[in-house]
Write a structure and sequence with these properties.
Largest sheet: 9 strands, mixed
Structural class: alpha/beta
Radius of gyration: 20 Å
Strand content: 15-25%
CATH class of the largest domain: Alpha Beta
Shape: globular
CATH topology of the largest domain: Rossmann fold
Number of domains: 2
Distance between the termini: 35 Å
Order of helices and strands: HHEHEEHHEHEEEEEEEHEEHEEH
CATH architecture of the largest domain: 3-Layer(aba) Sandwich
Number of strands: 15
Oligomer: single chain
Length: 335
């Protein structure tokens, strides 16, 4: 974590004060941009099917991707036919392209590739999410609802439902806008979304529709042979290293500690482009998001035999799926 990011979740510092004027400018520009879309000066593209946006207010990971996969699977169980669009962070797609489970993360980005492997629904990426949605619907005309992973501030894409994910442990940090704080938009933006999902423990915000999400770990599987699995107890007394390049690596490290594991922590920036030289010796524990990039390394060689992946599954309380289905049936519109 950089010095600036550390200041977001620490008491006020000289660095925070120094960056505050830039935060004012950022907030003014963000507010102007939203007003341009609200009053039709900038064009919003509406898709012919309902759109559910899953986003957040803070920079960094809050659990949007596992939530998106969970929603896709849950809606499918309720006889909806979802598809997913994403920007494809870290990818190279300037025009809409499909993401296949065996794709290259250097082209698609890590999170869309993980969604293509876990959600079981069509996934398309493009910087212009509306264009990605049109391309997905053209290729899969049976799709009748679109999920947008990380698109809360992408106002070009029209939407029926907005879901905002909040990190229960870190909250909104110092509640300042970028770059003085972690916020992309003010906390007051929560009042205009349809529902707030709090990932983990922590205070629940004042909102009429709040859901609690937990990310439950499953059995570890070996990167090079996913059919081989282990429980945490199988790693007892083994020297372990945890390698993690997600928005909030500490969440992964906390999960491993809660499983009773002792390890050396190796955090990397979100969406880090791993190389074989980043990997310490010995047994390595990684997230599924990092695993999609590690598996694609051309020089990984035999290292995949010592890399074990910990998948997590989202659980929601109360029943978010039933709430979404009811909103979709009623043609819910954002505030």
């Amino acid at each position: 974590m950089s010095r600036i990011e550390q200041s977001w979740y620490a008491p006020s510092s000289a660095l925070t004060l120094l960056l505050t004027p830039l935060a004012w400018l950022f907030g003014w520009l963000a507010a102007l941009r939203r007003l341009l879309f609200r009053y039709g000066i900038s064009r919003t593209e509406t898709l012919p099917v309902p759109v559910i946006v899953i986003g957040n207010l803070t920079a960094g990971g809050t659990g949007k991707t596992p939530l998106t996969a969970w929603i896709a699977q849950a809606l499918a169980q309720h006889d909806w036919r979802p598809g997913i669009v994403s920007r494809g962070y870290g990818g190279q797609a300037g025009t809409p392209i499909p993401v296949h489970p065996d794709g290259d993360p250097a082209i698609t980005g890590d999170e869309p590739l993980l969604l293509a492997r876990t959600a079981g629904v069509p996934v398309f990426i493009c910087r212009d999410r509306a264009a990605a949605g049109h391309a997905l619907l053209a290729a899969h005309p049976d799709v009748n609802v679109i999920l947008c992973d990380d698109g809360l501030q992408h106002y070009r894409l029209g939407r029926e439902i907005e879901l905002c994910v909040v990190d229960g442990a870190r909250g909104f940090g110092n509640c300042k806008l970028l770059p003085a704080g972690p916020l992309r938009e003010p906390v007051s933006r929560l009042q205009s979304v349809n529902a707030v999902i709090v990932n983990g423990t922590g205070d629940l915000p004042d909102h009429p529709a709040v859901f609690r999400m937990a990310l439950a770990p499953s059995r570890f599987y070996r990167l090079g042979a996913p059919e081989q699995t282990r429980n945490a107890a199988d790693f007892a007394n083994a020297p372990l290293s945890a390698v993690c390049g997600i928005g909030n690596p500490q969440r992964f490290f906390n999960t491993l500690s809660e499983l009773g594991l002792t390890f050396a922590a190796h955090p990397f920036p979100d969406h880090h482009a791993f190389s074989a030289t980043d990997l310490p010796a010995g047994t390595l524990l990684v997230t599924e998001k990092d695993a999609v990039k590690l598996a694609a390394l051309p020089d990984l060689a035999a290292a995949d035999a010592r890399i074990w992946v910990l998948p997590v599954t989202a659980t929601l309380q109360p029943d978010l799926a039933a709430w979404l289905v009811e909103k979709l049936k009623n043609g819910c519109k954002i505030a």
